[in-house]
Amino acid sequence: MIEATPLQYSQYLSSLTETNFYLKREDLFPEGGGGNKARMIALILKKAKNQKANYIVTAGGPHSNFNRALALMSKKMGFKLRIVLYDNNPHIHQESLNKRICDQAGVEYSICTPDEVAQRIEEEITKLKNAGENAFFIYGGGKSHEGIKAYAEVVQELNTQINPDLIATTFATGTTFSGLLAGVQMYSPTTALLGVSIARKNEISVPIVSNNLLEFFELKTPPISSFEIEDQILDQYTFGGYGKSNKELQDFIRETMQNTGLILDEIYVGKALFGLTEHLKNNTKFNNKKVVFLLTGGIFNF
Predict the structure, then answer these.
(1) pLDDT bucket at 93, cuts 50 / 70 / 90
(2) Which of 90, 134, 219, 270 would you call most buried, defined as having the most Cβ atoms within 10 angstroms of its Cβ?
(3) Domain stop point among 83, 108, 141
(4) Does 115 lie in the same domain as 50?
(5) pLDDT of amino acid 222
């Protein structure tokens, strides 16, 4: 049984947005360094254990929160981990704390270019199989039935804490958002949901969410239309793509950190929180309403 992560009221963000603003502290999830990816991995690795796997294979970049959480949690559960490592964001020049943690956790790497990832994954799984290992593949970022289920259950968890009018989250790979959307459909149909994209435009994001829901509910047609999904994803705050920033975002992060004590990064949480606060300031729909933002972890990409 996973213990509920804390809910924290923010006077500063409430005043800024004219809402009752709460933070769901997913960054304090007690495994893998915390964060939304760690919550997903807790369920995914149970499946790997049930299938008697001894090796985990995944793919991702050096700044991946998923890779870091997986490195810590898989080792603890007795798995070896091999990551197909690639970097399609060379504009991010900072040293990656996530990558350093993976190094310390004893991760094995197979390094390639972004174009080679799919082929390299197949090659590494074949190598392990031929060596007598039982490899379990996890799609980068945790895209899976278990990953979606983890955040559908978070909607239930939130309902025991506050019954929010709006749930908002960072939108990156789309798995967390898809889980929340599934959870809202099942457990809290009157609650609004927003995902704030930090990289992708909606023409890419919407089909991903639609397919996630199809697979999760095992349906031939999604339970919610593409138009409805699009209305729930804000894609105007990407600043040009993954890891892209500007002075306005940097100033927001600095001021918010100084007024809240939160640790916010420019890649994921800080960017999404900026987009959400701008949206709420420009719309009165949620004035004086209960807004919950999932703080999914900012320290590892600070």
Answers:
(1) low
(2) 270
(3) 141
(4) yes
(5) 73
